[in-house]
Amino acid sequence: MTSDFAAGNYRFIPAVFQYSGGVAANPGYEIERVRFDKWVPLAEGFAQIAKYIQAAGRPLTSFCACELRSPAAFTDEGFRNFNLHYVKTLAEWGIYDGTTNPVARSNVCPEIDPPAEPSFHAFSFTRPSERATPSFVIAGSGESQEGNASYAERTVRYRDISPEGIAEKVRYVAGVMERRMGEFGVGWKDATAVQTYTIHDFHHVFADALVRRGAARSGLTWHFARPPVIDLEYEMDCRRVLREVVIQPDPHPEERVFARLEG
Asked: pLDDT digit string (tens) for 148-198?
């Protein structure tokens, strides 16, 4: 089931307090994805995102998804503490009401040359559009099942990184992506981009678990990174976004907030 976030002009899949399961733009709107040329630390990133969205003539409530990079995987408690800090800005923007969070998110940890602190890689927001086709962003998911138990208790093939263990994790996560897209009445054939995050070789299961089901129709972007919680090994997200741009922080922010990269 999905819920409507009228203030942001999008629908979302209710999930946990730190993020939703995914978002889809309402009719008359589309999602724009904006990627930073270089990672931007969390607080500075929120400030730059706010200025970008407002410069586009949109309210801050149009912020609908983000992609984060963190220094290393968190413990259960550490992840909760980070999320409690993260949602404070969303509350200030009128997005998070203390219980429900409509914003989709991925948060992964690069294995090589990670950031020194949690940072933004990309964000998405809604804007008016005459396009008839829907746009959506499905939140990142690792191989942990829904529930209130600890990650250790609800992780598929916990601490099993054998070829068979990795294969089952990949199949499970791909199934989560399909179920979430199904909530919006879309599927792999509609996705314009699919991303996966793992440091493990999954080539042995790539064809059967991903390609045959259509998950690599537009290719697959592999980020050599870990999911955000210790002992999670495989994560994916996907999207249909027809408007994507790359931006870099302006070296003179007091004069101009962003300089766009051509292309």
From this structure: 778 889 999 999 999 999 999 999 999 999 999 999 999 999 999 999 999
Report the candidate in 60, 66, 59 with the shortest Cα–Cα distance to residue 105. Answer: 66
What is the C-alpha separation between 62 and 255, in angstroms, rounded?
Answer: 25
* Domains, the chain: 3-260 (3.30.1330.40)
Taking alpha carbons only, the member of 164, 239, 236 closest to residue 205 is 164
Q: What is the DSSP string of 5-16?
A: EGGGTEEE---B
Report the predicted TM-score, pTM, of the whole model to 2 decimal places: 0.93
List the structure tokens of 243: 């408007």
Q: CB-based burial of residue 120 (10 Å sphere; 0-12 exposed, 13-18 middle, 19+ buried)?
A: buried
CA distances from 118 to 29, 43, 68, 186 (A): 30, 9, 7, 32
101 within 8 A of 14, measured Cβ to Cβ:
no
Beta bridge partners of 32: 125, 243
Q: What are the angstrom distances between the C-alpha of 133 and each of 26, 162, 177, 194, 240?
A: 11, 41, 19, 18, 9
Distance of alpha carbon 52 from alpha carbon 256, whole angstroms = 11
Instruction: Give the phi and the psi of residue 232 in degrees, each rounded to 5.
Output: -90, 140
